[in-house]
Design a protein that fits this description.
Blueprint (H helix, E strand, L loop, with lengths): L6 E7 L2 E7 L4 H8 L4 H8 L4 H22 L6 E5 L5 E5 L2 E2 L2 E8 L2 E8 L3 E6 L7 H8 L2 H5 L6 H22 L14 H4 L4 E7 L5 E8 L6 E8 L9
Antiparallel strand pairs: 1-2, 2-7, 3-4, 4-5, 6-7, 8-11, 9-10, 10-11
């Protein structure tokens, strides 16, 4: 199968390779993308609730397959995915788990894929859509210090800051891979990033004193907010922004 050009390599940041996926209507790409899906994925594609959801699913999943096949130098028929109890996918090649991990997010026409070897990873992207409930949502997902960052802002500034903080927190939650079992108030955005830094380090300790560390980067662009979080195992990485 020949690859269409609905995805591109974007950049590398804190050990993760990042790829942009164009999810806008494209009949030629959609027709070719369907051929990349396995039987289960094709059934899931058919059950999507709307044409836009079917398009986003097929273009996103096919791009994931193309990128992983190219990076790992494997055939598409060798590639399957195993999901944990919270739905986070893991890569399998010839039915065996590999060290590479990935995470994908999408919002309207934009898809973002992060791929990294040997480390957990999470990514989030959000188009900054206007909404009437920023303050209500902030009470649900943000801590008191985080909510203070929204006080006194204009509507436009509040929208930008809300989505920036949302993506930073969501990328980390997705990287940890425990879904809605995590209380978002227990995930505190690094103070340096609350003050505007483009990168930061998040750490927590379990009941036994074992420390978990994650490196985070704000990838926001004029058209969207985005962030990536990569598990840190003591190796100092250069942050490329």
């Amino acid at each position: 199968m020949t690859s269409q050009s609905w995805w591109t390599t974007w950049r590398t940041s804190i050990a993760a390779e990042l790829f942009c996926i164009d999810l806008s209507p494209n009949e030629s790409c959609e027709s070719e993308a369907i051929m990349w899906l396995d039987e289960d994925e094709q059934e899931r594609w058919k059950t999507q609730s709307s044409p836009s959801r079917r398009r986003e699913f097929v273009l996103g999943r096919a791009a994931v397959r193309q990128i992983i096949c190219k990076r790992l130098k494997v055939r598409n028929d060798q590639l399957t995915f195993l999901h944990n109890e919270h739905g986070k996918p893991r890569i399998r090649v010839n039915k065996r788990r590999v060290s590479w991990q990935f995470n994908m997010s999408h919002s309207q026409p934009y898809g973002l894929l992060a791929l990294v070897n040997g480390l957990k990873v999470g990514v989030d992207i959000e188009v900054r859509k206007p909404r009437d409930d920023f303050d209500a949502m902030a009470r649900v997902v943000f801590t008191t210090p985080e909510r203070r960052c929204l006080v006194g802002l204009s509507d436009k500034q509040k929208r930008c800051q809300f989505y920036r903080m949302w993506c930073i927190k969501e990328a980390l939650i997705k990287g940890i891979g425990k879904g809605f079992s995590i209380n978002p108030h227990t995930i505190e955005i690094p103070e340096t990033m609350l003050k505007g830094a483009k990168s930061g380090l998040w750490q927590t300790a379990d009941q036994n004193g074992n420390i978990s560390s994650w490196r985070m980067a704000d990838l926001s662009q004029p058209n969207f907010a985005a962030s990536v979080a990569v598990e840190d195992k003591g190796v100092v990485e250069n942050v490329c922004l």
